[in-house]
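[Q] Does anyone have a clean structure-token version of this?
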Amino acid sequence: MELLFNGIKEGIRLILQGDPEILEVTLLTIRISGLATLLSVLVGIPLGAVLAVKSFFGKRFLISLFNTGMGMPPTVAGLWVSVFLWRYGPFGSLGIMYTPAAMLIAQFIIACPLVVAFSVASIQNIKPQIHEQIKALGATRLQYFLLLVREAKLSLMAAVIAGFGAVISEVGASMMVGGNIKGYSRVLTTATVMEVSKGNFEVAIALGTLLLMLTYLVTLLLTWVQQKEASR
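[A] Here you go.
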């Protein structure tokens, strides 16, 4: 227990002192996970809306793929991104392996199936009468989708929270495609694993505490937005 308390105190000390290295790692964590979540929302919600309301051959198969993707191990996502981005891979010429860009791609692949699956379930849960009312008002196709998204906004916020939670906490994919390079591609999760491997448990607990605090603060903000909309 003493080790745990010392680690938490160390985490608080690092925050209060504004340790440059910790600040750099934290900001990179926020930037990569935030962008990955944003991209997954921009792609996942429209795609989920289309899958929810359109009827076409293979629809159930596609939805099942996204539902399966919700449980995809991050290391598998990291492996596939690595295969495509390695020097002799299909996109090796881009030269972005072991960079924050590769980490962003891997985290997007992890978050996107979650957002799509949540979006499909949220919009399919809207009462059929509402669909008919929107169509009866003469809404265009774009207006129709936007109104459905607005109707399901509380559930869709849960999709955003789930997507962010999945990427902010993952370590396998980030380690595989980012390389955990100091001052370049090191984030809180990979830094924590590294400190554990070195036996620096107090520092690892401090980093873990920072990660928990960061996750809680962002989730608190998203939950506040969700509940504010619910009270209207």
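[Q] Thanks! Anything notable?
[A] The domain at 2-230 is CATH 1.10.3720.10 (MetI-like fold).
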